[in-house]
Write a sequence for this structure.
């Protein structure tokens, strides 16, 4: 009788472990999908980023409505354009660096290690998405002032 109980306990334990492994895998897959979804959204913004970045770079202050008559105001406007350009450039560089460093192979890692890695990657890609979105908004606002 006790042999049957031990065998039954082993079978139940085996199923519990298998179910936990399946649950762990689902959690990992879900977090990875969230990361890749943000990546895909970011990629769709890259053309817009490059377009507004180029427009900022080619802005001629003499023909731009932001141009002011005195040097101090002109420098403030110029610096604002430069900040927007740098934000876009930084967002683009951050995205490229993140993509090169992102690894989708978790073999040899525990579930906890994998989830820690994925959570850090999620935070990083969300920050890059915010940087790119904010940069595009700032650039659009600067470029769309009526003349």
């Amino acid at each position: 009788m006790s042999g049957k109980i031990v065998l039954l306990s082993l079978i139940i334990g085996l199923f519990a472990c298998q179910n936990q492994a399946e649950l762990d895998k689902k959690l990992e897959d879900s977090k990875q999908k969230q990361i890749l979804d943000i990546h895909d959204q970011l990629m769709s913004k890259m053309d817009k980023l490059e377009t507004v970045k180029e427009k900022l770079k080619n802005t001629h202050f003499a023909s731009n409505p932001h141009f002011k008559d005195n040097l101090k105001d002109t420098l403030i406007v110029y610096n604002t354009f430069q900040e927007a350009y740098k934000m876009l450039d930084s967002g683009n560089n951050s995205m490229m660096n993140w993509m090169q460093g992102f690894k989708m192979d978790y073999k040899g890692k525990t579930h906890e290690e994998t989830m820690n890695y994925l959570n850090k990657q999620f935070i990083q890609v969300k920050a890059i998405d915010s940087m790119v979105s904010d940069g595009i908004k700032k650039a659009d606002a600067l470029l769309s002032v009526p003349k």
Notes: The mean pLDDT is 84. The chain has one domain: 26-143. The CA atoms of residues 94 and 128 lie 7 Å apart. The radius of gyration is 25 Å.
